[in-house]
Structure formats: C-alpha cells, structure tokens
C-alpha cells in the first residue's frame, strides 16, 4: 500500500519495527537494494542496525540522519516528525538508551 516513509538498504543491515498493530512488529535483514515501506500506522518505530546502510525518504524527499554516537538507531516512523529528524540529534537516541 501507500507509504510516506521508505527505508532503502544501501548495504546489508537489519531492522526491527515495533509498535502499531501486532502485524506491524517484525525484524528482517535487508540486503542492499531492499525497500521497507512503513505502514501508515501511529506509534511505529524502527531500530536499525548499522544505520549508515539505510537511506530514508519521507514523502519522496531524502532525510539526513544527524550524526550519533552509535550506528544502531531507534527512529520514530512518524511522518510528522520528519522536520525534527533534520533539526538535530536530540530526537534520535542510541539503541542502548531505549529499553526493548
């Protein structure tokens, strides 16, 4: 279906999606070239292993993730927060800081 947020693997990495409905929670190894289209559900977040290997677009526009102390990231999959992603690292936290 339609997706406002798309993650494209530019190298091999894993993702784990949590929140939303039970069918939206899963983990997967993405191979370079694979796409993940985030469903339009509130409360989703994605944990990315080796976030240097993911390109993110929101509404077809590239989103640049700010530098962080860890390449493992927890990112909200909320299109409304797309401006916050480009504003700085305060909205992004290392995976070690978020209990899963």
Backbone shape:
globular
How large, in whole angstroms, is the Cα Rg? 12 Å
How do the helices and strands follow one another from N- to C-terminus?
EEEEEEEEHE
Assign the structural class, choosing from mainly alpha, mainly beta, alpha/beta, alpha+beta, or little secondary structure. Answer: mainly beta
Question: How much β-strand is present in the residues?
Answer: 35-45%
Side by side, the strands of the main sheet go 3-2-5-8-9
Low-confidence stretches: 87-100
User: What is the helix tally?
Assistant: 1
Arithmetic mean pLDDT: 77
Major sheet characteristics: 5 strands, antiparallel
Roughly what percent helix?
Answer: under 10%
Descriptive overview:
With 100 residues, the protein is mainly beta. The protein is 6% helix and 37% strand. It contains one helix and nine strands; from the N terminus they run E-E-E-E-E-E-E-E-H-E. Strands 3-2-5-8-9 form a five-stranded antiparallel β-sheet, with no helix packed on it. It has a four-stranded antiparallel β-sheet with strand order 4-1-6-7. The termini are far apart. The C terminus is likely disordered.
